[in-house]
Amino acid sequence: MTFETFIPARAKFVLELIGDAPPDFETTEEKFLEIQPECSYTVAEDLNKVTGTFDAILIQSPFVGTLSQKKLVPLLKKVAKHIKDNGTLIFTLDNIGHADNIAALMEGKPPKFRVTITRDELQEAIEEAGLNVLRSLNAGRGVKVKRQLADLLQTDMAVFVYIFTACKNVPPKKTLIQTLIGEGTVCAPTRVHIPNSFFMTEQNVFIVSSPVGKPYKLFEQEQFDQRIFINQRMCFPSFAVGLDFFNVLREKEILFISEMDDHPVLWESEYEKTAWINFRAVHAIQTSTPYLADFLSQFNPHVTVFANQLRRLPPPRDFDAEFKKKKTTTIFFGALNRDGDFIEILPMLNKLAKQYGNKLAFKILSRKNLFDALESDNKTFIGDMRKYEGQFVSYDEYEAAIRDSDIAILPLRDNEFNRSKSDLKFIECAGNGTVVLASPVVYANSIDEGKTGFIYRDEREFTNKLNLLIKNKNLRRMVAEKAYDYVRFERLMSQHYEERLDWYRELLARLPELTKEAAARIGKYIPQFREEIAKFRARFPKDSEQSLIDRTDSQDGAEIIIPD
User: Fold this and answer.
1) Of 6, 301, 465, 539, which has the most beta carbons under 10 Å away?
2) pLDDT tens digits, residue range 486-544?
3) CB atoms < 10 A from the CB of 45, how many?
4) Whole-structure pTM value
């Protein structure tokens, strides 16, 4: 098990202390360097040769697990001298009471874990060393034991390792980022889950997320000093429901943000019937592209762009090894709801498929009927017919298909919806060493023509440039390597997530002012929804205990506070 998700992703200097670890011990270095490739990462058995200070120190179980309290506390004090003032310490402790360990001891075999201290003893030592515990977590692994044994031993038999994070100075305010997920399959991984995983590495930042329709609760200020509620792509069913949301969050002094990464034009009628309250009744909006920001700013002036980034940097492609195999040139196309974009290039792809025969292969992730329309015997369907008519697979399968291809086709027709799209597919391809041939819509703003990828503007350019890429593997390699460097130095989440946290904190500092502005924005539309508001008041009195999610799912709502 590795612990890269607990190390602050911004960390440029990391120390991992492994003690007398067994020969098969896996350090976290390789995995963390995928997240933060600019990090200087040091792995040491002890402190004897360690110099300088670090942004994060990972203290592994073999380093502390067999020490007595008398030895442990002074050792941790020495470790703390090597952590920066704003640095984070991460402790791991194998569970002496895990079922595997107990089973080995009962069978007269050596224990699985060389541990003699308990979780509570480690926590006491951390605190006695003058450090502040930030988090205490358990990592489990499924086990099967007899009930009598579990009752007798009364240990956390399924807990594989205990994890603590700590700091040496007074920690920052406890901040909660809570997200209501309206679209969980395609958009949430990039727009919610990846940023959240980075936020959680920061001191006293906590994360909660729930899909629409599932129970959730709003937390009080006594639990978290600062609270942020993000509505990701959930369209309020009525004006009154959106107003109700705003009023509940206003009363609890929670920062309310809308997350939107697609052009609302596809759902325009739904938004119009609610006076676009999704974007008016929030303190601010976060989105993925400048084009979207321009559109959304007509409803709310506080719009900020956070471009999509990669969570990790994949290993570089070994082009020398690939060229030695003399493999077929493979073209990849994969996208959701881009039927028209694919159909436009289909005649040209069919012509090339006929021209090159078995020298050209295709990997297609799209609707099955589009795959069937591709006239090639050397093609592979990547999709899962159980999801979005074959247009969706797991991210690992998607990334593997890109990485196993030489060229990726990224067509986008010029229309209002497509102009708001992000360049995520380009950086996914670039990170996996696949050269892109893309439309100018969206991608012309990111691709350095002929250096990090290629742009086509008509059928002739598409055919000529694709022919060039099919025939010239050295050109593909040169462009792929430059695109990979672009991702490495500019398009990783570790380089950008702090901007988002800083923005949240700026908004929190202005919360009363922003709340007043939002109330004024939606107050203008109260008169045209008076009848709807009256129905709300009748169904949900102010002292109603019905949950906010129940109100959201209904076509009615709760008590409405009409802005001044």
Assistant:
1) 6
2) 999 999 999 999 999 999 999 999 999 999 999 999 999 999 999 888 887 778 766 55
3) 13
4) 0.91
- Residue 556 pLDDT greater than 80, yes or no: no
Rounded-to-10 torsion of CA 91, 97, 103, 109: 60
- Residue of higher predicted confidence among 155 and 303: 303
pLDDT tens, residue by residue, 78-96: 999 999 999 999 999 998 7
Burial of 155 (0-12, 13-18, 19+ CB in 10 A): middle
The full DSSP string for 181-241 is ES-TTTTHIIIIIHHHHHHTTSTTEEEEEEETTS---PPPTTT-SEEEEEEESPPPSSHHH
Does residue 390 come out as left (phi exceeding 0), alpha (psi in the -120 to 50 range) or beta? left
Residue 99 parent element (H or E): helix 99-106
Write down the residue that tokens 């190390």 correspond to. 7
Task: Report the 3 state secondary structure along 256-312.
Answer: EEEEECCCHHHHHHHHHCCCCHHHHCCCEEEECCHHHHHHHCCCCCCEEECCCCECC
The identity of residue 190, as a single letter, is T
Indicate the helix (H) or strand (E) that contains 134.
Answer: strand 132-140
Quick one: pLDDT band at residue 557, thresholds 50, 70, 90? Answer: very low
Question: What is residue 541's predicted lDDT score, i.e. its pLDDT?
Answer: 66
Q: How far is CA 306 from CA 233, 289, 497, 499, 501, in A?
A: 16, 7, 9, 8, 11
Going 509 to 511 to 512 to 518, the CA torsion angle's sign is positive
C-alpha R_g of the chain: 27
User: Cα dihedral sign for 244, 563, 279, 511?
Assistant: negative
Residue 115 and residue 71 in contact, taking contact as beta carbons nearer than 8 Å: no
Q: How many CA atoms lie within 13 A of 70 on its CB side?
A: 0
Instruction: Please say if the pLDDT value at position 47 is more than 50.
Output: yes
Rounded to whole angstroms, how far apart are CA atoms 306 and 286? 7
Contact 305, 488 (CB under 8 A): no
Query: Helix or strand or coil: residue 513?
Result: helix
**Share of residues in the chain with pLDDT > 90 (%):** 77
